[in-house]
Structures are given as C-alpha cells and as structure tokens.
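Q: I have 196 residues here and want to know how they pack in 3D. Can you give me a structure?
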Amino acid sequence: MLEIFTAIGGTAVVIAGLSNWLGKVWATRIACEQSQKFQLEFDAIKREKDHLFDTLKTTSFRYSDSQFGLYNELWRSLVDLKSSGDNLWEQVSSKKVKEFAIQVKETSDAIERSALLIEDDHYQKLKKILKQFEAFQFGKQRLVGLRNKTAHGQNIEENEIRYTIDNNRQRKEEFTELLNELRSHFKEQISGANIT
C-alpha cells in the first residue's frame, strides 16, 4: 500500500510540476500577447499624436507666414498714410486733402481685408489710428474751407483758424504716438510669429 501512495504522490508531484510549468508557459504567452497588444496600441497612439503634431506645426507655420506678410503689408500702408499726413501737414491744399482721403480709405480697406489674421488688440489700435487720421483729414478740410473764405473776403476770426491748426497738431501727435506704439507691437508679433 505504501507503494501505491508513493506512486500516487510521485505522480502528484509530477502533475504539480507539469501544471506549474504549463501555468508559467501560459502566463508567459498571455503576457507576450498582452505586451504585443499594448505595443500596437501605443504605436497607433504615437502615430496619431505625431500626425496631429505635424498638422499643428504645418498650420502654425502657414499662419505665422501669412501673418508675417500681412503685418508687413499693413505697416507699408500705415507708413504711406503717415507720409501723406505729413505732406498734408506741411502744405494744406484741396488736392493733398483728397490724396490723404484716398490713402485713409486704402489703409482702412487693407485693415478690414486682413482682420482675420490681425490680433484683436492690434485691430482695435489700428481702428483707433484710423479715427485719428480721419479726424486729422476733417480738420485739414475745415482749414482749407476757412482759408478759402478768407481768400474770398469773408471775415474769419484768426482764433478759429488757430484753433483748427492746434486741433490738427494734436491729432497728428496722437496718431504718430499710436503708430509708434503699434510699431512695437507689430515687431513683437512678427518676432513671436517666427518662433516655433
């Protein structure tokens, strides 16, 4: 009987050992399958992330390049407008007032066409500058009218002409100050737009 128990015990040990070995084989196989599954999922997520990053990078470059060109174009238009305003300041005439009005309109149109890519605070500053230029234009038109009345013998108070000139000077100083402030903001935007 002892021999039967010994045989059964030996068989049990063999079965337990075999079971243990088979369990390790299956555990290793399952672990490998899970590892491969996780690696495939990880690779898919990484590819998707890389694709999104590349898309974002491309979009960012395209936006930055467009914005860079836009800010340069707007600045040229603003410089032309300032130059026209300076010419009008130096010598007031109906012709120069008209040229200035045309430049104000061209600059205003350029700003509106570009509004999609202009930073909101820059857009507000540009609109404020345009209001100053329009007020300057109105003041110069008024001055031309006053001088024409004087030339035609109508009695105009010298104070009224002086007031109009002083008001125009103030408008000119305000738009020059705003333009200088905007130039700094444009430089910051352009230099920031090229950093990626």
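Q: Anything worth noting?
A: Residues 2-193 form a domain with the Four Helix Bundle (Hemerythrin (Met), subunit A) fold (CATH 1.20.120.230). The chain is about 90% helix and 0% strand.
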